[in-house]
Design a protein that fits this description.
alpha/beta; about 325 residues; five-stranded parallel β-sheet; 2 domains; three-stranded antiparallel β-sheet; 11 strands; 10 helices; elongated
Length: about 325
């Protein structure tokens, strides 16, 4: 689980003029996730003096994101590679977890956003090959596609490569890692201040795999993927089942979450095999979600069955109630 109190500094690297809009989308996404974007906007010029500051900024960052378009960028006369590539290689050298987003080859970029210098074209191709051989990379087709792909990719990177991050000084006394909170929930069944827990519209990355049924004989994994939902979306999906059926067992709750995800991604699957696909979520993740909702006081367990608490029932009804036009 990702701590709700921890914030990460994220260094954003790219060529500047041709990727202003893409940088803005990534910056906004990082801010929406509650973290701190940092990049060339803080450095007025690309020179040797600024390079020392950039190196320090990369070293102090928790994560590194590079956006690659059709331009290679300004080349440093000493290293003979672009400043963007220098930044990427330096982050790699320092072991900063990173993701590269590279424009898809199918995108028809305007001439103003494409290199015309053959030497730079070759250097850009070489840079892409270096990224492919070393780090996580994703392709994108537009600024909107880039932002949509950043959410799950970045949250997955945080999960796979946890970093120290930053915690507000006034929260240190109260700060407890989420895993420890969940252990306390298991023992005490209550928390005095649930506002410290992730909830509501805050993002939840759900990793899942899609299986395909081989005509009843075997099931094999079609692909692994992830989706970003809010904690409320997941809660409301299981709350509806509990509201209608009362107490339900773990298997039913798990199927409810998996079914909800399947409905959201169903149109991305080949239609001719639609009835043979299913979504599967790891049991550890499902148990974490249930413990989180229990920590929030929304659900409780009794003899291996789960049911809504008064607080959970009230939260669900408030969500489902028909509101007057113009109200939220």
């Amino acid at each position: 689980m990702i701590s709700p109190n921890k914030r990460y500094q994220v260094f954003i690297s790219s060529t500047f003029t041709d990727l202003k809009e893409e940088r803005a989308e990534v910056t906004q996404a990082i801010l929406e996730l509650g973290h701190m974007p940092y990049g060339m906007e803080a450095f007025p010029a690309a020179n040797e003096t600024q390079w020392e500051w950039i190196k320090k900024a990369i070293e102090e960052s928790d994560y590194y994101i590079v956006i690659i378009g059709g331009k290679y960028g300004s080349v440093n006369s000493k290293t003979e590679i672009s400043y963007t590539e220098m930044e990427y290689r330096y982050a790699d050298e320092k072991g900063i977890p990173s993701i590269a987003f590279i424009i898809d080859d199918s995108v028809d970029l305007p001439k103003s956003k494409i290199e015309t210098d053959q030497e730079k074209v070759d250097k850009l191709l070489s840079f892409k090959k270096y990224i492919d051989s070393n780090k996580l990379r994703k392709s994108y087709t537009s600024k909107e596609d880039l932002k949509a792909k950043l959410y799950p990719s970045f949250l997955q990177l945080i999960r796979q490569c946890p970093r120290e991050g930053w915690i507000k000084a006034n929260s240190l006394k109260e700060y407890t890692p989420n895993s420890e909170v969940l252990k306390l929930v298991k023992e005490n069944q209550s928390l005095k201040n649930s506002s410290e827990l992730v909830q509501g519209e805050e993002s939840l990355l759900i990793e899942y795999r899609i299986t395909i049924d081989n005509w009843g004989f075997t099931q094999e994994t079609y692909k692994e993927d992830s989706i970003v939902l809010s904690w409320d979306i997941v809660f409301f999906s299981i709350a509806e089942t509990m509201y209608l059926n009362g107490r339900i067992d773990y298997s039913s709750l798990k199927r409810t979450i998996e079914s909800h995800i399947y409905k959201m991604i169903q149109n991305t699957l080949p239609p001719e095999k639609d009835s043979r696909y299913a979504v599967r979520v790891n049991d550890d993740f499902i148990q974490d979600y249930l413990l989180q909702f229990e920590a929030l006081g929304y659900i409780t367990t009794y003899n291996a069955y789960w049911e809504l608490t008064k607080k959970g029932r009230k939260h669900y009804i408030a969500h489902k109630a028909i509101k007057k036009s113009g109200t939220e």
